[in-house]
Amino acid sequence: MFNIRNVTIDPPLILAPVAGHTDSLFRRLIKGLGGCGLVVSELVSTEGMTRHQSRSAHLTRFDEAERPVSIQIFGSNPARMAESAVMVESIGADIVDINVGCPVKKVVKQGGGSNLLRDLPLLRQIFTVVRKAITIPLTVKIRSGWDRNSINAVEVLKMAEDCGVEALAIHGRTRSDMFSGF
Question: pTM of this prediction?
Fold first, then answer.
């Protein structure tokens, strides 16, 4: 087992978020099998959350049987990111996770997901304002870089740590790799 601050992850395995799959029912099924110490929601748009869209509310719902649970948010507006992180904390989630890895066009086009790997000053601002806005642990998932000519994972992860992010996950592919192998 290991801890992310006061959240114990036992067994020491995390169910990664997968859009369209890691809903509450699936997370409870996996937890019921005893295979994960932490489950993470599908990525949730901060724009949708802060505008109180029903789809976003659905994605952030969880059952006590899922605990500990992390809600993953994405966006590019620091104020909305902070506001949605506060919302995640207020519904009782154990951890807020920031997505800096999604390569999907509609997420990247909004400036979120792996697009943030191309704007480190903005990413630093997001990490800083979100960290200040919440009291629960903050984590981040990134890709190794935008493409193979701009691998910046170490720089991004050091920056995240400097800003108070408490756990880091790295997806070994770049945004340009999308979902293909190496």
Answer: 0.94
Sequence-distant (6+) residues with CB within 8 A of 170 are: 141, 142, 143, 144, 153, 157
The encoded tokens of residue 93 equal 């989630």
Residue 158 has pLDDT above 90, yes or no: yes
β-pairing, 7-9 vs 2-4, is antiparallel
| Residue 65: per-residue pLDDT | 94
* CA pair distance 46, 56, nearest whole angstrom: 8
Phi (first) and psi of residue 4, to 5 degrees: -110, 100
Estimate the share of the chain in helix, then strand, then coil, as percent rounded to the nearest 5: 40, 20, 40
Cα gap 118→138, rounded to integer Å: 21
Give the total residue count for the chain. 182
* CATH class for the domain made up of 2-171: alpha beta
Peptide bond preceding 11 in cis form (omega within 30 of 0): yes
The proportion of the chain whose per-residue pLDDT surpasses 90, expressed as a percent, equals 85
Q: How many CB atoms lie within 10 A of CB 18?
A: 12
Tokens 């979100």, residue? 130
Q: Give yes or no for residue 119 having a pLDDT over 80.
A: yes
Catalytic residue annotation = 102
